[in-house]
# Entry
Amino acid sequence: MLLLIKTYSIKDKLIIFKTIFNSNKFDFIPTDQGFTLIKYGTLQEVAIAILESSNVPLNVENIVDIIRKYYKVDGKYDSANSVLGNLKLNKKIYELDWHVLGLKCHFSYSQEHWGKISKIAKENIKKLQRQVNVVELLESIRKYYPKLRSKYELVYILREDNEIIDLGFFNFSLKSMRQKTRITVKDAIENIYKKNPKPRHFTEIRKEILEKRFLRVEGMNTNLKNLIFLRDYLGGFFGLKKTHQKNLRYLANNELYLSKIISYEIFPNTSFNRVLKLLQNENFEETIRQTIKNSSKLFLYEDLEAEPFIISKDWSEARLVRCILFNLRRTIYYEELRWILNDIGISIDESNRHKIKNDKYINFHGNKLSYVEFILSKDDVREISDICYDILTSSTSPESIEEICELINDEYLEISNNELIYILERDERFIILDEQIIMVK
# Structure
């Protein structure tokens, strides 16, 4: 028999071997090196066999492709999501990165290093004395273990340590801290207002939340707007709905609130009456006037020919002049502008005159100035739109007009909320939802 086999081709010999095995669980498949013997089985058995033959972890899509090509597996596991859901149930298979699966041998560091990695994590948690997200831990641990693949891989390592508690959703604590349940963002915000019900700017809320748990900055404003017990007072301020009247009184006395309102919500039309309408109570007129008077940043300009309006000393020279010209609603002489600015401690001379002369909203004609109504060049519009698109596509959730406007003002151009809405409404890539929430189509 063996002599006869020698005269056969390799393929014929394989057929004979398969006949000898007399089993439908095995098959030979052609590869670059010849033929490979494979064994059919359940999805999980097949996946483990595929991973065992690989030196690196595999994306679930790659596993699906191999299964479709060589293995006879139930059709209900033909998609990546269905395969991923099934394989994650097997304790021998680990999701080492987003949709990337491997075995214990595929970890970036062998088990002998896991104890040292967990020790660094425990030191960090102990130092912060609060629940910690794996993203925070990954950042510090990678200083010593730079090849650590992802937060997914780190989660498995931390779960092996008996002193570390997995709170779920990538959050961890220590047994010694006696925290048994995860503090959600909603829980943290409720506790903040329970201790003190005053209205707060979202940056203050974020700071207080970070004392209790990790928080991503992206989408913070949107998340606050979605909480049914909070009311959005614009300018990035939020307060409890049940204390609405007290909130208005507090905000009328708050310099930061008035500054945010005139800078981002209503600029350049910063008339005193418009601010008063936002607070829905004419009785706050004297309160607001006193707040401005006590402020080192805000200034109430009153002119016989125009409504009183509010300006901020924190603004750039061009932004100040733009606001002044818009609210005066008339052409003024350059010397008159210098007098107005001098009243609030701002000087304009030859060294900084170019900053206002080059502003597209300010029209110079001789020694006179006037406000140019909102006009943007095509290049300006394209640049602002592209910046917004980049911000939104890199975010995991919709953003508010205010948040995007602040980012643009900090890094690129000076623009108001209304101006940004004007641009984005005319770009088909964007959708503007209620309450000035923006998202990409």
User: Anything to note?
Assistant: The chain is about 45% helix and 15% strand. Confidence is low (pLDDT under 50) at residues 1-6.
